[in-house]
Every structure is written in C-alpha cells, then in structure tokens.
Design a protein that fits this description.
Blueprint lengths: L14 H12 L2 H13 L3 H29 L3 H11 L7 H33 L8 H12 L2 H20 L1 H28 L5 H9 L8 H13 L7 H7 L7 H29 L9 H11 L5 H35 L3 H22 L20 H28 L2 H8 L6 H24 L2 H8 L1
C-alpha cells in the first residue's frame, strides 16, 4: 500500500518529538521506582547485564512491531488492528489486540495514578522537612499513616488525574508533544543533579560496583525471568500506548532508528536512577534489597540525614512525578482516540469521560490500602490468598494482559503480515536488519514472553505438580 491516510488526531512535528513522547511513555515509575529495587533484590550487576540483553532481543523487536502496526493503521489500536487484519486477509479476531491494549492502559492508569499521587504528596513532605533526622520506624510510620488516610490518598489521586487529563485533552501537538518537550529534559536534568550529588558520597564507587560489576552466581532463574519481564514492561509494550503514538509518526521517519533511541533513552534513565539511589543506600548503611518500600520508606531515611537533604528529596520526588506524568498521558490516549473515532466525541469530551471513569476505578486502589485492606476477593485461591483489589489489578495487567498483548503483536507482525507489508513500513536500510528483526520477532521475543507468562501466572508450578 503505497500511500496511507493520516491520523485524524494529527501527527508529531518531528522524529525528535516522537522519540521524546515514546520515551516519556516508556520512562515512568518502572524506571525510577521499580528498576532500582528489582536490581537490588536480584544481586545488581549480573541482573543489569541480562536485563540489557533482554531489551535488545525482546523489547526492541516487539516495540518496532508495535510502532509499525500503529503507523500503518493510523487509528486507535482497536481500529488499527481491525483495518490491518482486513488488509492482510486475516480474521477479525485480531481486533482483540487493540481492545486488550486499550483496556490494559485504562486499568493500569487507575492504580498508576494512585502511586503517582503518593509521589505528589511526598514532594510536599520532602520540602516541609518531614524527613529531617528520620529513622527507620519513623519513616515506616510516616508512609503507613499517609496510605491509611483514604481522604489524603484519594485527594492526591484526584490531583494527578486532573493534570493528566488536562494534557490529553489538548491533543497531539498542543498537549502531548508540548508536555513531553518540557517534561523530558526537566526529568533528565533532575536525574543528573541527583547523580551528581551521589558522586560526592562515600558509597558512590560501591554503588557503581553493585550496579555494573556482574556476579553471575547471584543470577538465579527467577532473576532472569524478572529481567525478561521488566525489559518488556518498561517499554510500555502491549498496552496500546506505543501503537497509538506510532500512528502519529510521520511516514518518512525510520522506525528502527527511533525505536533504538527510545529503548536506549529508557535504559539510560533506569541506570541513572540506580546510580542516584544505590550510593545513598550504601553510604547510609540501608538495605539494597528493600523491595517496593525502597523509594517511599528507605530513601527518606537517607535524605533526612544528609546535607541539603530537604532540597534533594524534593527534587527526587518531583522527578518521580514527572516520570509518572509522561507515562500516564500515554496510558489513556488509546481510549480517548477510540472515543473520538467511534463515538464522534470532541477530544475534550472524550478526555473527560475516559478520565472520570479511570478516576472512579482508581478508588479501588485507594481503598486497598485502608478501608478495604481486608477485602480479599479471591482469598479461596492459594495464589491470591492475601491479594487486595490493587494486587489483583496489578497481577491481571502485568502478568496476563501485557504479556498476551505483546505475544499477539509479535505473532501478527512476524507471521501474519506479509513480508511486503512489514518491509514497506519498516524500511530498514541495514542489509541484514530486516531478517534479524523478523527472526527475533518470530521466534525469540514470543518465546521469551510466553516463558515469563507461564512462570508469572503459576502455570509452571501447576504443571510440575500434575506431571
């Protein structure tokens, strides 16, 4: 198909605009919050090395496929997959990839905005000096007292959803592009300032060794699966965000080059976050494998006991908010685009509807930490015995919906699209680039995603018990 229509929503003004937007989508709480703690839990350097390998072999090929599908369809993920299935003479079933991505983004944002609201609240706590001289028990009590207050958590969840939907309502050029044009450079500057401070600490060299010196004796099978899973999820794959951003990509822009730029920038941010965090952890004798509490309970102890800690803590949590903000606008964009295309809504109206429904659903997560903390809907099943509504939403999206979405994207792009179609859209100039991509997206990436899916969902344990 030589000439394709343009998206009715507009397009990015340049390749740089797409790179910043897609990087903004990829760079989020997963980079600043999750990557440092899973690296800490899994031994540091060897995990990081294997993670980088997974980015290249799994993340990049699927991301190229998702951008390619988006640009070829030029519509919301649902309508894109319907049109491409028809174009390739495939069954209409493949619309499920679009529906799954839109629903996944919608569900993820419902709890993502609550966590981002925590970060917003912690910006004020940091600048008010709440961390000054704080100890372990005090930090734990501060965080517990905040999350137990449904009104406070609900308020900050509401604030974050409002600032997200204001950007989305303004459209591609005036909303999404303008926001990332300022937020992404600001995020990088804040991160470099924190790394610069980390360089002055006694634990900087120890932190670098922990992060980059591989000790393969610490790389367990579970750690490898964790690395594969995070490499996939950190790039925002399988949730419709990259597909809809790809639909706004100008025709003359190289998908392969821009994908590598985005993956490289996303990885750089994750590594810089580790370089900013681990030196503080080692300098002040904190626990590197503190898990999810590393950001909201462990780091405030370090910030509370260093010179200039009030200012640095404030910068850090502003950084966390910016990272969450750039991701959140991409999570809701596929749903807004679908409402505009299929329900004839104006963009502001579509944004309002999508935002309000997401905001309301978010209270399931808000209440999971306080008044509904004892609600365990699937307590009869051993795997979910202690799972709150938030835990179930996280499990459903991260362990089921996103892997299946990524797997189906790889299958459609690698096996069901004709080589003529994918070659025409990708336009890879490197002589062996297309065959390498095709091999990775057909065999390596789907196999790795299914491996993560089987283990994460407990199917492997179930099968071993039976056989």
């Amino acid at each position: 198909m030589a000439e394709r229509k343009q998206s009715i929503h507009g397009q990015w003004s340049s390749r740089l605009a797409f790179i910043m937007a897609a990087t903004g989508s990829a760079v989020g709480l997963g980079n600043i919050w999750k990557f440092p703690y899973i690296a800490g839990e899994n031994g540091g350097g060897a995990f990081v090395l294997f993670y980088l390998l997974c980015i290249v072999l799994i993340g990049v090929p699927i991301m190229m496929a998702e951008v390619m599908l988006g640009r070829r369809g030029r519509q919301s993920p649902i309508n894109t997959m319907r049109e491409l299935a028809h174009e390739e003479s495939r069954h209409g079933f493949w619309q499920i990839v679009g529906w799954g991505g839109v629903l996944a983004g919608f569900l993820i944002l419902s709890y993502y905005s609550v966590i981002a609201g925590w970060a917003l609240a912690y910006v004020l706590k940091a600048f008010s000096g709440a961390f000054t001289g704080i100890g372990g028990e005090q930090s734990k009590a501060l965080f517990g007292g905040f999350t137990n207050d449904a009104y406070a958590v609900g308020f900050w969840h509401t604030v974050f959803m409002i600032i997200t939907m204001v950007v989305v309502a303004r459209g591609v050029r005036h909303g999404l592009e303008k926001a990332v044009r300022y937020l992404m450079p600001a995020l990088l500057i804040l991160l470099l300032v924190l790394v610069g401070y980390a360089m002055s600490t006694d634990g900087f060299v120890t932190g670098l060794k922990f992060l980059f010196a591989p000790d393969f004796s610490k790389l367990s099978g579970d750690a490898m699966l964790e690395a594969m899973g995070h490499a996939f999820f950190t790039l925002s794959l399988g949730m419709g965000a990259i597909m809809i951003y790809g639909s706004y990509l100008p025709k003359n822009v190289s998908i392969a080059k821009t994908t590598f730029y985005v993956a490289g920038a996303d990885t750089l941010v994750a590594l810089l976050a580790g370089m900013a965090i681990f030196p503080l952890v080692f300098t002040y004798g904190l626990e590197s494998s503190a898990g999810p509490s590393l950001i909201f309970q462990t780091l405030p102890i370090a910030f509370g006991n260093i010179p200039g800690g009030v200012f640095l803590a404030g910068l850090f949590f502003i950084l966390l908010v910016f990272a969450a903000w750039t991701s959140s606008i991409s999570l809701i964009e596929p749903a807004v685009a679908w409402l505009v295309e299929n329900r004839g809504m104006k963009r502001i109206t579509a944004s309002l509807w999508a935002g309000v429904v997401t905001w309301l659903l978010g209270f399931a997560t808000v209440f999971s930490f306080n008044i509904w903390s004892d609600v365990k809907p699937l307590s009869g099943l051993a795997t979910f015995e202690k799972s709150t509504l938030f835990d179930l939403l996280d499990y459903l999206t991260a362990n089921i919906m996103l892997p299946l979405g990524g797997f189906l994207i790889a299958i459609f792009a690698g096996w069901l699209m004709t080589r003529k179609s994918s070659k025409e859209e990708l336009k890879i100039k490197f002589p062996y680039g297309y065959p390498v991509w095709l091999f990775l997206v057909r065999f390596i990436a789907p196999g790795a995603v299914i491996a993560v899916f089987i283990v994460k969902t407990g199917l492997w344990t179930w099968a071993k018990n039976i056989f």
